[in-house]
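lol forgot to send this yesterday, sorry. struct tokens for the thing we talked abt
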């Protein structure tokens, strides 16, 4: 089996808090004397058994991230791990509702710390990062609009995208038209989670109502051939997270995952890890499993990473430099 660790990789879909190593969260809990009952299994891994429980554990673990400095330390730890897996560029989801609870002053302080963490990781490990600010779907449209306004106020070289995560089974993409318009009009790159827990209809609504160039997951589109054709025709890029989907039982096995079929149909697919410690994965594991399951070789991974750079929410100069690093 090829050692994929040294293969340069581009990751477009990674939740900052969801990438927190359990040991990092446990150490902060001890430091701050915070009780995290229920967050961990006896083997030290995150405890959850379905998507709703995953979200509960995720937000409970966030209780130890009490201020900007904890987020700086988290960003550095997450980027160090990504770099050690061969990731040269990553886009990280953050949320104003988690970083400062939607308060404008606090949000600015959290962002400054997050930029500091990314700069330190770049200096130490050469990894390039950008942040995508997100609303949390289950918090509703008003909070989403507030989050979008806070995001636009700080749009810049490091805060380059806007998206939506959270409970996909709550509400419709139509509820978030205003929030996405605020972000899109400011020139931010736009993505949204859809087609993960809900079927093709949620992908269709996202394309109908939100100005996305990318979709987080989108894999349930495979259930509707006309929707797959629409993704191809519109050049929509999917941020696919196969290990996450299997862990959450969206598909029963790696062999049943549609990433290869979507690629075969002409959809632009990329590979990411979503919330890697929660789903017992990392980028090296994803590449190993894709190679083992679908026979993906260096040429396919090179194509996937090229697609990811083209779809990245960063400036052209950075894209050129990343493409040089992919081929050198
Ligand atoms: N937030 C963190 N991980 C998520 C996922 N996989 N889907 C939706 N929201 C999330
Ligand atoms: Zn996600």
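and heres what i got for the seq, position by position
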């Amino acid at each position: 089996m090829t050692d994929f660790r040294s293969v340069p990789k581009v990751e477009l879909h990674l939740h900052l808090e969801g990438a927190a190593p359990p040991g990092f969260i446990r150490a902060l809990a001890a430091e701050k004397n915070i009780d995290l009952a229920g967050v961990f299994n006896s083997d030290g891994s995150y405890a959850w058994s379905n998507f709703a429980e995953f979200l509960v554990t995720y937000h409970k673990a966030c209780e130890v991230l009490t201020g900007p400095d904890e987020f700086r330390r988290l960003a550095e730890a997450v980027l160090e791990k990504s770099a050690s897996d061969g990731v040269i560029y990553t886009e990280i989801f953050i949320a104003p509702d988690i970083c400062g609870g939607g308060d404008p002053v606090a949000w600015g302080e959290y962002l400054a710390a997050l930029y500091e963490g990314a700069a330190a990781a770049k200096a130490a490990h050469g990894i390039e990062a950008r942040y995508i600010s997100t609303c949390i779907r289950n918090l509703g449209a008003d909070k989403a609009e507030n989050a979008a306004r806070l995001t636009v106020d700080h749009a810049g070289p490091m805060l380059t995208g806007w998206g939506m995560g959270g409970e996909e089974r709550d509400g419709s993409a139509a509820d978030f038209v205003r929030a996405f318009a605020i972000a899109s009009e400011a020139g931010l790159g736009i993505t949204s989670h859809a087609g993960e827990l809900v079927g093709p209809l949620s992908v269709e609504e996202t394309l109908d109502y939100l100005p996305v160039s990318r979709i987080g997951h989108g894999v349930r589109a495979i259930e509707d051939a006309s929707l797959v054709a629409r993704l191809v025709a519109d050049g929509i890029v999917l941020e696919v997270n196969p290990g996450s989907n299997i862990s959450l039982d969206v598909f029963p096995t790696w062999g049943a995952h549609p990433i290869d079929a979507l690629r075969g149909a002409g959809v632009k697919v990329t590979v990411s890890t979503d919330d890697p410690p929660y789903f017992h994965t990392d980028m090296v594991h994803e590449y190993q499993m894709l190679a083992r399951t679908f026979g993906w070789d260096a040429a396919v991974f090179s194509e996937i990473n090229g697609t990811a750079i083209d779809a990245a929410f960063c400036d052209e100069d950075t894209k050129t430099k990343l493409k040089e690093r992919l081929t050198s």
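Residues 190 and 212 are 5 Å apart (CA to CA). anyway ping me if u want another try
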